[in-house]
Amino acid sequence: MLRRVICSALVAMVLLLSPVVTAGPVNSNAKPNATVSAQKVDATTAKPDAAPAAQQLMQVRWATHTDAVTGASKLRLVFDVSGPVEVDGTVTANPTPRLVVNVKGAVPAKGDDSVNLDGKIADSVNIGAVDGQNTMITVDMPMMVDEGDYKVFTLPADIAAGKPFRVVVDINKPIPPMVFNFTAGLKNKVIAIDPGHGGTDPGAIGLARIMEKTVNLAVALKVKDLLEKAGAKVLMTRESDCDVFGPNSSAVDELKARTTVGNFRKADIFLSIHANSFVNRTVGGTATYYYQKTQYDSMLAQNIQAGVVQSAGLSNRGSFPANFYVVKRTLMPAALVEMGFLSNPDEEKLLNDPVFQQKVAQGIVQGMERFFAQAARAGGDR
Amino acid sequence: MAAKTKVLLLMVIFILAALAAGCTPAAPSSATPGQEVDKEQSVQSSMGTADTMRLTVYYATADAMYLSPEVKVVPKTDHPAQNAMELLLQDPKSHELVKVMPDGTKIRGLTIKDHVAFVDFNDKLAKNNGGGSTTEMLIVGAIVNTLTEFPDIHKVQILVEGKKVDTLSGHMDLSEPLSRSEKIVKKSL
């Protein structure tokens, strides 16, 4: 029997606020604008007498890719070429952020060209012949990318897959230079705590029928006590066994309601508390996930992970980037901790034990304290 | 004269390539668009015999840390992507790998439009998966990586009972079409 308790105050707040937070899906209108077979015809019919020795560089295809697992976003530009060329790339910040790609041994098949992109990672691509042998491609970007966040390379023709020689440009989405001025210590910090699942959504369930929503809440309430004793202000997405948005609500409404609690009330950090599950019941351990949307997300996850592993003593699976809604759509540094595996009978027993729950809670709070100390030092170094 | 021969040769190669591509629509290949892969390897894996095709399917490692590919040789059909999804529902040959798709999951359909595969499952995909975020991550990664083995598929949108879903079990953000993940792949066991 699931209790259907509604967190009435929270629901009212969330209903009022939900238009404030626009969490619409990232528009992906990236459409490769030519088919492979069409390009092959282009390559064969390209005027060989125009530049006999130079290869023909075809029109750009582009798409923004979201990594299915990590959620990391990158722009990929692909230029088909009639044959092998050499490429190099450099970035410059002045006068505006720009990636310059030199293509040695090819000229644009259809003359100089300019293509507008969606502006998320790059605004436009300009293709211009330098001379009868070489082409310069410039990619104008709204924000500068770091060395290591772009890659310019070539791919050989792949006859089996029907693909010609290609020049490829990958650009990772840069992290916006948001300013956080963290100070050390927990006193007066605003910390959002999200006990995962709840109400009509039990989350994972162990062999002994221990429900994830129950252990998540138990640990979250212990974290709240410890943080408040240390002088922090705690925002809970739920404080009882309830749905945050409403019973049987759509998944996205439920997740959005949780991020809204942190976003609207300007939490310094956000932590979602979960318990894991996998089909192989021997799998166990603690893991923490983040989405690197600020300079501090991975730092927060690493500190929480280290704190929980040290205090609770389960095996250390590590901290990883993940395409998880609540860590991605919150505005402040955020992490999602998977305390242990409910599918593992030993860990299920521990997760249901108040003594173990207290150790996890202490580990989380220690991790947060170390995070603020480290973030304060990092900020001071700038 | 030499330049003309070169052009002719190029034309022949392209026509052959076009023919090869035409015979096996969305021929399976480890040469994902733009992926930096060894050319020889991609040619190999895209070749079955005349009657068979090689499909690469992703399973979880037993410790639930990674996905790992397993190559299956199956009779050739005109819908290899759907076949690959059906293979994903079966157990792996290797004992070091674990099937991630929940019991009772069925494929309702698969369409490809503008290089995005829309793959539709019954509701067991969401209801029978056990609810863990690790499981959810491995399911999504396995579906996307298996489908993006096909050169024609660049992104994947997961549907449940014909509808777009924002998440499977409340962790992952599935609201937009997703691209391949290389980081989670462990190439050799």
Describe the 3D structure:
The complex is a heterodimer of chains A (382) and B (189). With 382 residues, chain A is an alpha/beta fold. Chain A is built from eight helices and 18 strands. In chain A, the strands form four sheets. Chain A has a six-stranded mixed sheet, sandwiched between helices. Chain A has a five-stranded mixed sheet with strand order 6-2-3-11-10, with helices on one face. A five-stranded antiparallel sheet of chain A has the order 4-5-9-8-7, with no helix packed on it. In chain A, helix 1 packs across helix 4. Mean pLDDT of chain A is 87; it is low at 1-5 and 11-51. Helix content of chain B is 31%, strand content 22%. Chain B is built from five helices and seven strands. In chain B, helix 3 (80-88) packs antiparallel against helix 5. Chain B is globular. The N and C termini of chain B lie far apart (53 Å). The chains are: A alpha/beta (382), B alpha+beta (189). Chains A and B meet through helix 2, strand 2, helix 4, strand 15 and helix 6 of A and helix 1, helix 2 and helix 5 of B.
Summarize this structure as a short list of keywords or feature phrases.
heterodimer, A: 382 residues, alpha/beta, six-stranded mixed sheet, five-stranded mixed sheet, disordered N terminus, B: 189 residues, alpha+beta, four-stranded mixed sheet, three-stranded antiparallel sheet, 5 helices, 7 strands
The shape of chain B, in one word, is: globular
* Uncertain stretches of chain A: 1-5, 11-51
As a percent range, the share of helical residues of chain A equals 25-40%
**What is the number of E strands of chain A?**
18
**Form type of chain A:** elongated
- Radius of gyration of chain A over all CA atoms, rounded: 26 Å
Average of the residue pLDDT scores of chain A: 87
Mean pLDDT figure of chain B: 82
Element pattern of chain A in H and E: EHHEEEEEEEEEEEHEEHEEHEHEHH
Q: Indicate the low-confidence ranges of chain B by residue numbers.
A: 7-45
Structural class of chain B: alpha+beta
Strand content of chain B: 15-25%
Give the helix tally of chain A: 8
- So what's the oligomer here? heterodimer
Distance from N terminus to C terminus of chain B (CA atoms, Å) equals: 53 Å
Q: N-to-C terminal Cα separation of chain A, in Å?
A: 54 Å
Main sheet: strands, sense, barrel of chain A: 6 strands, mixed
